[in-house]
Each structure stands twice: as structure tokens, then as C-alpha cells.
TrEMBL record, chain A:
This is Ferredoxin oxidoreductase. PANTHER family: PYRUVATE SYNTHASE SUBUNIT PORB. The keyword Methyltransferase does not apply. GO terms for biological process: small molecule metabolic process.
From TrEMBL, chain B:
The keyword Oxidoreductase applies. The keyword Oxidoreductase applies. Keywords: Oxidoreductase. This is Ferredoxin oxidoreductase. Residues 1-27 are annotated as: Disordered. GO terms for biological process: response to oxidative stress. Residues 301-380 form the Pyruvate:ferredoxin oxidoreductase core domain. Residues 58-276 form the Pyruvate flavodoxin/ferredoxin oxidoreductase pyrimidine binding domain. GO terms for molecular function: oxidoreductase activity. Residues 10-23 have a biased composition (Basic residues).
UniProtKB/TrEMBL annotation, chain C:
GO terms for biological process: methanogenesis, from acetate. It comes from Candidatus Nitrohelix vancouverensis. SUPFAM superfamilies: DHS-like NAD/FAD-binding domain (SSF52467). This is Carbon monoxide dehydrogenase. It holds the Pfam family CO_dh. The lineage of its organism: Bacteria, Pseudomonadati, Nitrospinota/Tectimicrobiota group, Nitrospinota, Nitrospinia. InterPro entries: CdhB, DHS-like_NAD/FAD-binding_dom.
Length: 297, 414, 209
């Protein structure tokens, strides 16, 4: 939607709940410079959520929503799990369909938007957990990459099935003891970033959400590259503190540990040579634009 | 209990689309479906297989997106639609990776405001099954042509209508075409009925594999320079997911739970609403298909009541019995969901014996009819064949005679 | 014809959908009153009298008329305000359809997942839904019929609602204005509004003022 459509009718605006008055006045739809720094200072696109206190997924959601290049023309596709408890409260249209079919839904959705709005950029973004992405939905995840569907897939990797109570998933570490892995998981954490790279993703990044600027950059890269080249993939470590026996305050430390040298989530990025060149040009453009704006200001 | 839908004297809902009368890029004129049907007489009949008929219906149906996956006996139709795409009649088309994925891809395209068509059969229908109640619950007016085939082990690619039974409580509209002509008419009418704002449900347009898809038949088609008016996603009873309509804070479709403040009455009401929408389709369907059933000689004490190609075999059986002086009437059921309750009660009011021939082992149609009719001992569930057997009309005639205690040259029962 | 009447509840733990009881939607130019198909003209008068007879008449505008997503929406919003002023009736928005967390303010908002809370809280005895997507409107209308005694009406831009006690279809700005004119005419003929005194709330970012 053009941002101009996200306005209230004058004659009924004064009966709307405050969160909508704020959304129209202070949200960052249409703002080229939107990013994680708007969290807390502008109206966020996530209204509220019912995730556990201190859940890293909630901060990941806020960074992602704050950093979308064009939320007024973005549609999310989610899947079943903790993320689907948040999505009803997100001020970007989004779909929950079935468990695991998110990349199939996104394929059809992106194509429909492409043929209906040939002259507009419409971003489709999949955001789902590890169970949906790598286990039940792996077939559809990979096939959308093989087909070179032009959308971004984000996996919130908490290394288990959280919403059903902490069962083994394909992205769980080997040896971890959980429900359905009573003697410890018997095989390695699935190497999804590498699989994504080999399956035709043009840009892949794997990181924790401890550093908001990194999340913002990776997300913007992923979406811009998806528009131009084809599928892109982000894997974000969002530990389920509840199921790994940590306190509400310990999510950040857990992520920092995981990304330290030798950890499972040391920052990783794959991009084709073409994409590297493209991102470099984009960065240069962005710098020039900001400099010009500063000089004008 | 469903009561009669009074459609006498109802005016049809004619297309109000802004593009009515304009031309598309293939030089076809956007036309109301009833005017397209009226124009079928303008040219001579065509002699086509069912698969070719599906292609020719889609050619004039203003379909935006179709997703294909090969499974006999629908593969040819799906491939022919691909050729239409290559010729520019569809905006997008691709092969998905499995029926489960294809139905998800169709859902995505429909969520995004496109008119969507696909085809499947037998094991494909079952693999896709989780999607169908989701389609209905999400109010996605996708049309899937189901070319019925066997679903049991050992695998059979031949016609068997058992898979339709699985579709009955998905919340979809379920229609059953007898002939290639039906299939053509049902596809075009189907888009219009299922996209009505008060209906807005998916449609399973079923036909019997091979008998309809692979045999040639004469068909009256609309001129190919006409086409259906496009789908308008902003008349939908639910928000289109394109960030072009309010509210933007919208999840399709949230599970309402995990809160003390929210009642599960929402879920129950949601399911009621889907079934209500099936009911609402009656008046539109009656208008476009000329009724949910067709009948012949209802004054007779013996009736054959069925759907699909079992009706064709029933007609021939009636002719054979007529030669022996046994008079039998016929009821052809066109829509299984909505089920033609009032129509059947009226049509069978005078019948003493009601035979329901079916191409499946379960006899699900007979069960539906028995559940509806008073004095249902009148209903004889059979004859049945399954797994791809044909049902010679002689078998139907013999079984009727046997049941009525008339001497026959018995084939042995089945 | 169906014998079923779409009357105010509380009807049942889970009332049936009116369509499943044989109630059929009106054709263009028609409306329905309690399941009875009538010429649209007849429904204006009936609806206007219902609104004037209500103690807490309320309009529930939905997202399709709250947001200025096209020019027509803004015109409808203005017409809705005129109607509310003429009755006079409260305006309570159905701002969106999400299961609201942790809870809604039932005095100032209605939600299709638990509309009964808003009806009960404000003791609303007659209401009109307008600009709500049909699917969500029907959910709300059924839940209200199930658990409250509110007389429900729908001014629908599409085919109408059998789950409302009274429903118009093919709504336009002109039709909303016609309803307003009918209310004004009845008042000029001596039909008095029975509405209890109220002050329409105004919202700001800080909440109600």
C-alpha cells in the first residue's frame, strides 16, 4: 500500500483506539531511513505479544519490523509456533496457513502480487521457526529456492520445538537431551546456511540477534537482493530460554556465548560475486544519499 | 435441518465488474457468465476429450494463476493449461513439488487476490487434504478440478469416486460432473458461484477419471472471443493480503486462543459461517446450473438416483429395462455440497424403490440419501463397482430386477 | 420459505447460522427484516424506528470505513457520523479483527472474537455494523445473537447478512444518508429518541478525553 493509504478517515479518527492514532502519526512507513534505532522512539509495528518474558524472539521481531525497507508494501508469511502468537499484533498484513507450507504460500503470494502489481515492488517475507523451516517444511523451503522464487526466508532458530514444549528439531545440537530425544539428539545440527547456499540462495546470513545493527543490515541486504536476484535466507538464533533452563535475563548472554569464537552462531554470510558487487554499490548509494541529506539539513 | 431455499422469482446476481464489455490483451471481451452460456449456440459442437474441455474452459475463464503437478488422470489437462499460459491466456503458471505444496501455492496466490485454478486426482487429493479445510476456513475461492481415481493399495489409476467422500466435510463446495459438457459448464459457473462475496469458498469440481477426461464427447462451447469478468478481491468477505486494503494489522487466519478473554465461540462461529456460505451458494448455483439436480419421469415408482458417470450408465439401464416393460425414472445430482435436500425429498416423494449406483465401495452417496429421506428402506445402496471397474448398464438393470424379484439371466451379484 | 426468525437473543449456547436455517439473503433492491425479505424502502423505516426506540443505540464502524483507503471510504465515514449525530447514537469502532491481547477496553472498542463483552458492558440494545468485512461481521453477529439481547443490524456493501436481525445490501453513501433522512423525518413526525444521555468519547494518543 502506498503509505498514503495508512490514514484514518477524518470523520471517525477520533473514536479510534490510541494505538491506531499513534500508528498513523508516528510509525515509520515510507521512511527511507527506518531501522532498529527507531525501536522505542517511534510507533513500532508490533503492538504487543504473548511471548515469555525475556524471549529473544520478541526483540528479534522488533528489529526485523523496524528494519523492513518498505513495510507498507510488505506481506509476511508465518507458520505455526511461537511466532504465530505474535503475528496477529503486527501492523503488516500476514498469513498463517498450515504448519510447514510457508514457502509454498509465499511462492503463490509473491506471484499473485507480481501479476497484480507489475509496476510496484511488493516484498514477501517468510518468517518461521526451525521446526517449520527445516523439518516439516524442508521440501517446500528448498523447492522455493530451487525455483528461484524472489522472496526472503527468515528462520527464527531456537534449536527446538518451543511452542509444543521443547521437543527435538533438526536444528538442535547433537547430544542435547530434550523431549523426544531422551538420550540426546543423535545427529548433527542441520547445516541449513550451507544448504541454502547450494540450493540457489543469492544471499545467506546466519547470526544471533544480540547486535541490532547486524540484524538490520542482514535483513535489508536479504530483502534488496531478493527483489533483484532471487531467494535469500536469514537464520537468526533466538534461544528459547524457557526450554534450555535459563532465566528471563539470560537470553542476551546466551546469544553472545553462541556467537563467540568456536560457537554455533559465529557470524556467517554467503553471497554470490554479483550480489557482493550489488550490495557494495547499494552501500555507496546509501552513503551518498545520507551525506547529501546531512548537507541539506 | 435445512429448509427449502426459495429461489423462485429470484433475480440473478449479474456481474457488475468495471471491465464488463472491455477487451483483454488476447482480444477477448469480458462477459457475464450467463451471456457466455447463452452464446454457446452461436457455433457448432466440438468433439473433445475431457482434458481438452478443461483447457477450453480455462481459456475463457480469466484465470490469473494455475499451479500444476502430474498425476494420472489429470496430468494432460494440467499440461494443456501450461500451453495456454505460453500463449498468454494466464498470467502465471508453474509446476509445484507435490500436491500438498501445490495447494499451498494456490492458497498463497488466492490470499494475494488472484483467480486460481488447479487439478488433482486420487492419491494427490489425499496428499493435499490438509489444505482443503484451510482453504475453506480462509475463505479462498480456489477451484480445483478433481479427476477421481482409486486411492487404495494396490494402486489404481482408474476411476473410483471414494476420494469425494473425503472432501464432503472440508467446507468446500463439491460438484460432480457427469459429462464433458457438465465439466465445461461447471468450471465457468464454478468461478462465478465460488467468488460471490456471500459464498467465497473453494470448489472441488469432480469428474470421473478416464470416463470423462480421456473419452471424446460433443460439447457446446462459448465463443473464444468472450471470457469471464475478472475476480475482484476487494469484494471478498475477508481482507485481501496485498497491503492495499484495511486493516493492515491483519493476520489471516489467527487461531484464537491462549487468552482468558477470548471465547472459543469464535472458532465454532467460524465453522458455522463456512457452512452457511455453502448454503448461500444454493441460489447462485441454481441460477447458473439450472438447479442442483436434473430429473426424468418422477412419476415412476422405481428411481435411479446418482451422480457422475453412474448417471450415464443409469440412463442406459433405464432404456434396457424399458424394453422389458419396466419403467424407471432418474435423478441426477449435480452438487454434493451443498446437498440438494429439498429437491431430493420432492423428487423421491412417490418412489417405492430408489437405486443408487456408485463407482466406489463405500456407497457414500447412498448413505447421504438414506440419511435424508423418510422411509429410507426404499433406498437400495447399489450396485457398486470400485478400483476402476466399469459398470455395464446391464449390471444395473440386472441388480434392479433381482432386488425387485423379477427373473433375470443372473450375472452373479456383486 | 424458512420459518426461522432472526431475533435478538440470548438465543443459545451456540445459535445456528441463519443461512443453515433456510434464511436467504435479499436480492438487489431488497433487504431482510428478521429473515423476511422486504423491499429496501420498508427496511429504512423499520430500522430508523428501532434506532430511535433504543436506549443505547450504537454504530459499529469497521476497518473498511475507518481507514481512508479510497475516496469512497472517507465519504462513508462522513455519512456515518451524520447518521450517529441524527439519532443520536454512540460510535464504537471495530478497529481490527485480531484477538486482542491482553484485553480490550469494552467501553470504547468492539472485537469480532468477543463482541458480547462490548454489548454487555455498555448495555447496547440496538446496533448497526457498517464497513466490517462480511466474514468477521457474521462471526460477531452470531456471537451477539447467542449471548445478548441486542437487536443487530447490518449495512453491508456486498450481499447482506442473514445473521443480523435486519440487513441492507449494496451499501452506498446515498443509502446511509437515506437512513439519516428517515430518522430525521420520523423525529419531525414526533417519534422521539429514547436514547439515554451520553457523551461520545474522543480518543487521543493518551487515551480517552
Amino acid at each position: 500500500m502506498s503509505k498514503e493509504k495508512i490514514v484514518l478517515c477524518d470523520d471517525l479518527a477520533d473514536i479510534m483506539p490510541p494505538e491506531y492514532l499513534d500508528l498513523v502519526k508516528d510509525a515509520t512507513y515510507g521512511n527511507q531511513d527506518r531501522g532498529w534505532k527507531d525501536v522505542g522512539s517511534s510507533k513500532e509495528l508490533i503492538e504487543q505479544h504473548s511471548l515469555c518474558a525475556g524471549c529473544p524472539e520478541s526483540i528479534a521481531f522488533r528489529y526485523v519490523l523496524a528494519s523492513l525497507p518498505a513495510p507498507e508494501d510488505t506481506v509476511f508469511v508465518g507458520s505455526t509456533g511461537c511466532t504465530s502468537l505474535v503475528f496477529p499484533h503486527v501492523a503488516v498484513q500476514n498469513i498463517h496457513s498450515l504448519f510447514g507450507n510457508q514457502n509454498a504460500i509465499a511462492s503463490g503470494l509473491h506471484r499473485a502480487l507480481k501479476v497484480r502489481f507489475p509496476d510496484k515492488v511488493k516484498d514477501v517475507v517468510v518468517l518461521a521457526g526451525d521446526g517449520a523451516t527445516v523439518d516439516i517444511g524442508l521440501d517446500m523451503t528448498l523447492q522455493s529456492w530451487f525455483r528461484q522464487e524472489k522472496f526472503t526466508t527468515i528462520c527464527f532458530d531456537n534449536e527446538l520445538y518451543a511452542n509444543t514444549g521443547g521437543q527435538e528439531s533438526g536444528l538442535m545440537q547433537k547430544g542435547f537431551v530434550s523431549k523426544m530425544a531422551p538420550v540426546g539428539k543423535l545427529f548433527d545440527k542441520v547445516r541449513l546456511p550451507e544448504i541454502a547456499r547450494e540450493s540457489g540462495c543469492h544471499y545467506v546470513a546466519c547470526l544471533t540477534v544480540s547486535k541490532p545493527n547486524r540484524v538490520e543490515k542482514a535483513l535489508k541486504n536479504a530483502i534488496l537482493v531478493a527483489r533483484e536476484f532471487g531467494p535469500t535466507f536469514l537464520q537468526l538464533y533466538t534461544p528459547c530460554i524457557l526450554e534450555i533452563g535459563k532465566q528471563s535475563m539470560e537470553g542476551l548472554d546466551e546469544m553472545k556465548d553462541a556467537e563467540a569464537i568456536g560457537g554455533r552462531f559465529v557470524y556467517k554470510e554467503y553471497a554470490t560475486d554479483e550480489v557482493k558487487k550489488f550490495l557494495k554499490e547499494k552501500d555507496a548509494e546509501e552513503k551518498a544519499r545520507k551525506k547529501a541529506a546531512k548537507n541539506q539539513g | 435441518m435445512n429448509k427449502e431455499v426459495d429461489v423462485k422469482g429470484k433475480k440473478g446476481t449479474r456481474s457488475q465488474h468495471v471491465k464488463l464489455g472491455q477487451k483483454n490483451k488476447k482480444d477477448q471481451t469480458f462477459t457475464d457468465v450467463e451471456d457466455m452460456f447463452a452464446a454457446k449456440d452461436q457455433q457448432g459442437p466440438s468433439f473433445l476429450t475431457g482434458s481438452e474441455v478443461i483447457r477450453d474452459a480455462i481459456k475463457v475463464a480469466s484465470v490469473d494463476i494455475s499451479v500444476a503437478y502430474p498425476i494420472t488422470p489429470q496430468s494432460e489437462a494440467a499440461a494443456l493449461i501450461g500451453e495456454l499460459y505460453a500463449e498468454g491466456y494466464l498470467l502465471d503458471y508453474f509446476r509445484g513439488e507435490s500436491e500438498f505444496a501445490v495447494m499451498g501455492q494456490c492458497a498463497g496466490a488466492s490470499f494475494g487476490g488472484a483467480r486460481v485454478f488447479t487439478t488433482t486426482a486420487g492419491p494427490g487429493t489425499l496428499r493435499a487434504m490438509e489444505n482443503f479445510p484451510m482453504w475453506a476456513g480462509s475463505r479462498l475461492p480456489i477451484q480445483v478440478c478433481v479427476t477421481c481415481r482409486g486411492i487404495n493399495s494396490p494402486l489404481s489409476i482408474q476411476p473410483d469416486t471414494l476420494e469425494m467422500h473425503y472432501l464432503l466435510e472440508t467446507g468446500m463446495l463439491v460438484w460432480h460432473a457427469e459429462t464433458a459438457q457438465d465439466l465445461y459448464d461447471f468450471i465457468l459457473a464454478g468461478f462465478i458461484v465460488s467468488e460471490q462475496p456471500d459464498v467465497h469458498l473453494p470448489l472441488a469440481n469432480c469428474c470421473d477419471g478416464f470416463f470423462v477426461t480421456h473419452t471424446k464427447d460433443t460439447v457446446q462451447k462459448a465463443p473464444e472471443d468472450l471470457c469471464l469478468t475478472p475476480y475482484d478481491p476487494y469484494k471478498s468477505p475477508v481482507p485481501c493480503m496485498d497491503m492495499e486494503c484495511p486493516p493492515v494489522r491483519m493476520m489471516r487466519d489467527p487461531f484464537v486462543m491462549k487468552s482468558n478473554y477470548i471465547s472459543y465461540a469464535t472458532h465454532a462461529s467460524w465453522q458455522q459461517e463456512v457452512r452457511a456460505a455453502v448454503e448461500r451458494s444454493r441460489k447462485h448455483t441454481i441460477q447458473l446450473l439450472g438447479g442442483l439436480i436434473e430429473t426424468e419421469n418422477l412419476d415412476r415408482e422405481i428411481l435411479i438416483v446418482s451422480s457422475g458417470t453412474a448417471v450415464s450408465q443409469g440412463r442406459e439401464a433405464i432404456r434396457l429395462l424399458e424394453e422389458e416393460g419396466i419403467k424407471v425414472g432418474l435423478v441426477k445430482i449435480k452438487t454434493i455440497r451443498p446437498f440438494p435436500n429439498e429437491e431430493l425429498l420432492e423428487a423421491t416423494a412417490n418412489a417405492k424403490h430408489i437405486f443408487v449406483p456408485e463407482f466406489n465401495m463405500a456407497g457414500w452417496l447412498a448413505r447421504e440419501i438414506k440419511a435424508l429421506l423418510p422411509n429410507n428402506e426404499r433406498v437400495y445402496a447399489g450396485p457398486h463397482v470400485a478400483g476402476g471397474m466399469t459398470m455395464p448398464s446391464e449390471v444395473i438393470a440386472e441388480e434392479i430386477k433381482k432386488h425387485l424379484g423379477i427373473a433375470t439371466d443372473s450375472w452373479g451379484g456383486c | 420459505m424458512s420459518e426461522y426468525k432472526v431475533l435478538p437473543g440470548p438465543e443459545a449456547f451456540l445459535p445456528p447460522a441463519a443461512a443453515s436455517m433456510g434464511v436467504v439473503l435479499p436480492d438487489p433492491g431488497e433487504a431482510h427484516i428478521e429473515g423476511r425479505i422486504v423491499p429496501e424502502e420498508e427496511a429504512y423505516e423499520y430500522a430508523a424506528r428501532k434506532l430511535l426506540a433504543g436506549k443505547v443505540p450504537t454504530l459499529f464502524p469497521g476497518p473498511l470505513v475507518l481507514w481512508k483507503w479510497n475516496d469512497k471510504a472517507a465519504l462513508k465515514a462522513a455519512a456515518i457520523r451524520r447518521l450517529a449525530d441524527a439519532i443520536p447514537a454512540r460510535l464504537i469502532p471495530m478497529a481490527d479483527y485480531r484477538p486482542k491481547y491482553p484485553k480490550i477496553d469494552p467501553e470504547a472498542e468492539i472485537n469480532p472474537n468477543h463482541p458480547n463483552l462490548t454489548i454487555w458492558h455498555n448495555k447496547i440494545d440496538v446496533c448497526i455494523f457498517i464497513g466490517v468485512h462480511c466474514h468477521q461481521a457474521n462471526l460477531a453477529l452470531k456471537i451477539i445473537r447467542g449471548g445478548t439481547n441486542c437487536y443487530t443490524m447490518a449495512m453491508c456493501a456486498q450481499a447482506g447478512h442473514e445473521d443480523a436481525c435486519l440487513s441492507f445490501r449494496d451499501l452506498t453513501v446515498e443509502k446511509i444518508d437515506k437512513m439519516t433522512e428517515t430518522v430525521k423525518r420520523l423525529k419531525s413526525e414526533g417519534v422521539e429518541s429514547q436514547a439515554e444521555g451520553f457523551k461520545q468519547f474522543k480518543m487521543t494518543s493518551a487515551g480517552r478525553s
